[in-house]
Fold this sequence. Notes:
Radius of gyration: 15 Å
Strand content: 25-35%
Number of strands: 6
Structural class: alpha+beta
Oligomer: single chain
Order of helices and strands: EEEEEEH
Helix content: 10-25%
Amino acid sequence: MKGRRPSHRRQLIPPLLTGLRVKVLAHSDPSLVGLEGWVVVEEARSLRILTLEGRVSTVLKDLAVIEVEAPGGEYIRISGRVLIGNPLDRVKEYRWRVSRRCRSLSRLKT
């Protein structure tokens, strides 16, 4: 995956990785390094990736460093340890953060 330089800012982590294109940059299992494809299923401790060859591989999050192509076209490098846990909890946190930011902006306008 070529493009802009990866970002390390936490607020850019997409709330859900399902459907996004990813590449495994580092992993304790050398056979998974360089694996590229789309996230089919995101679980609490693993990702299932549909590879470019058409097979599904399971990657443990805590042992990996991945690069994600965000919906805006930006590439984000993420340590899998940050992603550990239920993905729906991350969605709730993301929604709370966004709604809190919108409320604070609306107070400034009045």
